[in-house]
C-alpha cells in the first residue's frame, strides 16, 4: 500500500498588502471604529457567519448577494485540548471532530477559524455536510437554534493608543501607508443548544482583510 501524503499545513494569514490606507489620524480613528463595531457585533450576535455576511455586504467586499463560504482545510485536524473538552462537557473518550476553515467573501479571507464540535450532538445530515461541503458551520447548524457564549474577545491591533482622545496626535507623513497586520481580532466562544448543552468550541482569528474597504479621504 503506498504511503499516505503528509497532512496539509494549516493556512497562514497573509498580510493584507493590497489594502492601502493613508497613515493619518483620521484613517486610524476610522480603522479603530470599524474594528470595535465588528467586535461588538461578534460578541452580541449568535452567528459569526451572519455577522460576516452583513459586514461583507455593508462594506461592498464582494458583488451583491455574495455569501461567506467556509473553505475547509483537509488534513489540518487537531485533537481537542483538555480545556476544549472541559468547555464541551465531554470526557476523554467522547469523539470530537475538528474543522479548520478559511471564511471567505469574494476575494477576501475574513477569518481563519478552528472549530471543535461533538458530532453526536448534531444530526447525521449536519455531520455529512460538515465533512463534504464548504458551507459554514453556522449555516449548517442554524436549525438547532443555538446560542453563542463568548469566552474571550480581544482586538489584537490598536490603530491608536489608549489615550488617543486626550493627547495631541503625532505628526505623520500623509504619504505613508497604514500598516494593517494579518490578525486584528481573536474570539473564543462556545455554541450551546437551547437546553444549554454545548456542542461546539470555536477559536476565530479575524484578518486585516476585514478592513479591505475604501480608505477615508486624505
Strand-helix topology:
Elements: H1 25-44, H2 48-58, E1 69-72, H3 82-88, E2 97-105, E3 108-117, H4 124-132, H5 137-140, E4 147-155, E5 183-192, E6 198-207
Antiparallel strand pairs: 1-2, 2-3, 3-6, 4-5, 5-6
Short description:
InterPro entries: Chorismate_lyase_/UTRA_dom_sf. With 218 residues, this protein is α+β, with helices and mostly antiparallel strands. The protein has helices at 25-44, 48-58, 82-88, 124-132, 137-140; strands at 69-72, 97-105, 108-117, 147-155, 183-192, 198-207.
Descriptive report:
- There is one protein chain.
- The chain is of the alpha+beta class and 218 residues long.
- It has a single domain (25-211), classed as Chorismate lyase-like (Chorismate lyase), CATH 3.40.1410.
- Helices cover 23% and strands 24% of the residues.
- It has a six-stranded antiparallel sheet.
- A hairpin with a 5-residue loop joins strand 5 (183-192) and strand 6 (198-207).
- It is elongated, with a radius of gyration of 19 Å.
- The chain starts with 24 loop residues before the first helix and ends in an 11-residue tail after the last strand.
- InterPro entries: Chorismate_lyase_/UTRA_dom_sf.
Amino acid at each position: 500500500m503506498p504511503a499516505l501524503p503528509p497532512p496539509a499545513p494549516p493556512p497562514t494569514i497573509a498580510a493584507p498588502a493590497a489594502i492601502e490606507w493613508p497613515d493619518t489620524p483620521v484613517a486610524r480613528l476610522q480603522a479603530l471604529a470599524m474594528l470595535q463595531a465588528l467586535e461588538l457585533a461578534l460578541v452580541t450576535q449568535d452567528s459569526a457567519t451572519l455577522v460576516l455576511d452583513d459586514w461583507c455586504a455593508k462594506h461592498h467586499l464582494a458583488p451583491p448577494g455574495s455569501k461567506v463560504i467556509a473553505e475547509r482545510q483537509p488534513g489540518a485536524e487537531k485533537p481537542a485540548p483538555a480545556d476544549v473538552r472541559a468547555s464541551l462537557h465531554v470526557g476523554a473518550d467522547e469523539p470530537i471532530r475538528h474543522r479548520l476553515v478559511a471564511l471567505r467573501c469574494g476575494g477576501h479571507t475574513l477569518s481563519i477559524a478552528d472549530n471543535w464540535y461533538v458530532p453526536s450532538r448534531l444530526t447525521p445530515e449536519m455531520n455529512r455536510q460538515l465533512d463534504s461541503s464548504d458551507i459554514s458551520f453556522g449555516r449548517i447548524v442554524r436549525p438547532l437554534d443555538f446560542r453563542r457564549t463568548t469566552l474571550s474577545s480581544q482586538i489584537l491591533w490598536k490603530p491608536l493608543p489608549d489615550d488617543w482622545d486626550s493627547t495631541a496626535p503625532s505628526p505623520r507623513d500623509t504619504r505613508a501607508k497604514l500598516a494593517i497586520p494579518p490578525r486584528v481580532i481573536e474570539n473564543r466562544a462556545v455554541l450551546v443548544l437551547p437546553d444549554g448543552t454545548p456542542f461546539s468550541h470555536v477559536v476565530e482569528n479575524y484578518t486585516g482583510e476585514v478592513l479591505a474597504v475604501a480608505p477615508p479621504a486624505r
